[in-house]
């Protein structure tokens, strides 16, 4: 059986690997010159079941209004005539109601936990290295109000089976002494010890080598325009290099999945959400964190990756534009240096931005399409690195006709129809 995987980001490459392990002959189609060069290239690095709360949360409208017009807003809507954005925003707002929010938290958590375990297994099996650290993730809060809110959330999430340790400022410093420079600004923190970090790009390239060893073929520089189909089946991928036939097709084109799936009769409300990262060499190891930090005040994450410090954040709704706005990139750089002064060399900072493939409810779209041989694995938004291995395993099992190992309820495209 031949499977064609569309897209070679962390999702596509993980899926190719799992399909090959299930015995498929696999071909991956990718427009770039290599794997992992778009959204999977320089993300925040967190493998974070902890980050299971979607943006569409109660209070998001009030929060967005406070930020409106502020250039340093972590969540920035650039008001523009874009019907896709307005349609997406309406769906997004409808997901922010209390009961929807908690249903979304539950399904995101289910997939993130499954995937985190699957990644650990894969790493043990393959012995691949990608600057990973198993030191957990700490969220820090500066205002007593934000900390109080976090404690309420932590208690509610513990009822879903996920324990966030609650920390006072002294405990924050015991776990991450490099926070000493901001100790007097800390109201407290929460900590998820089993979460991890690692370089998604290094992981994707390492897994690419393992894929090739299993016989997976990669075609780079090929543009996918869409999928040809009859009533029941996808028959071929239509590309600028002709039609490519297979028995099974997997859609994993990140933010570009929706365009490629047009005409297939399934709604894929995926909107590109621009985020930035800055990577710098660490110059003082003791001043840099070993635990990955999420700073609630600025909505940034800061992770150590080998001898580099990476900070990532901001969400900008501005279509498919991938220009780097120097002011926004510098903003997260200064915020990270404020948390860990002297840790990294900002003169050698590398700036990056990319488009998160975001769905209104914050969960990816995973499952079968309308045609029985179409499998969808996309829309992973803020958590694509966290969810990559688990999502890939689910798709490979579905392709093989096996039941997935977790409940897929609420993860398919049907929820948007
Ligand atoms: C600033 C930032 C920080 C983040 N931090 C984290 C984090 O800490 N933890 C976490 O879990 N996630 C994080 N993410 C999210 C994560 O990076 C994404 O969810 C993930 O990379 C999505 O992977 P993907 O394979 O779906 O998309 P991509 O990596 O974009 O892959 C899609 C591939 O499809 C190819 N493609 C697209 N269209 C076509 C076409 N028509 N023909 C051929 N090829 C095509 C592209 O070239 C690309 O290689 C972050 C994202 C950003 C932007």
How would you explain this protein's 3D organization?
The chain has 417 residues and is an alpha/beta fold. Among the domains are: 2-40 and 202-268 and 363-416, FAD/NAD(P)-binding domain; 142-192, no CATH class. The protein has ten helices and 20 strands. It has helices at 10-21, 60-67, 83-94, 98-126, 144-158, 169-175, 200-213, 257-260, 326-339, 384-400, and strands spanning 2-6, 25-30, 46-47, 75-77, 137-141, 165-167, 188-192, 196-197, 217-220, 224-229, 234-239, 242-245, 248-251, 271-281, 292-295, 300-305, 308-317, 350-358, 365-368, 374-378. The strands form four sheets. Strands 4, 5, 6, 7, 14, 15, 16, 17 and 18 form a nine-stranded mixed beta sheet that branches. Strands 9-2-1-13-20-19 form a six-stranded mixed beta sheet, with helices on one face. Helix 1 (10-21) runs parallel beside helix 7 (200-213). The radius of gyration is 21 Å and the shape is globular. The mean pLDDT is 96.
Helix and strand pattern: EHEEHEHHEHEHEEHEEEEEHEEEEHEEEH
Biggest sheet record: 9 strands, mixed
CATH H-level superfamily of the domain at 2-40 and 202-268 and 363-416: FAD/NAD(P)-binding domain
Please report the distance between the alpha carbons of the first and last residues: 31 Å
* Extended strand count: 20
Helix content: 25-40%
Unique bound compounds: flavin-adenine dinucleotide
CATH first level of the domain at 2-40 and 202-268 and 363-416: Alpha Beta
List the helices and strands and how they pair.
Layout: E1 2-6, H1 10-21, E2 25-30, E3 46-47, H2 60-67, E4 75-77, H3 83-94, H4 98-126, E5 137-141, H5 144-158, E6 165-167, H6 169-175, E7 188-192, E8 196-197, H7 200-213, E9 217-220, E10 224-229, E11 234-239, E12 242-245, E13 248-251, H8 257-260, E14 271-281, E15 292-295, E16 300-305, E17 308-317, H9 326-339, E18 350-358, E19 365-368, E20 374-378, H10 384-400
Parallel strand pairs: 1-2, 1-13, 2-9, 4-17, 5-15, 13-20
Antiparallel strand pairs: 3-8, 5-7, 6-7, 10-11, 11-12, 14-17, 14-18, 15-16, 16-17, 19-20
Helix pairs in contact: 1-7, 1-10, 4-10
Bound molecules: flavin-adenine dinucleotide.
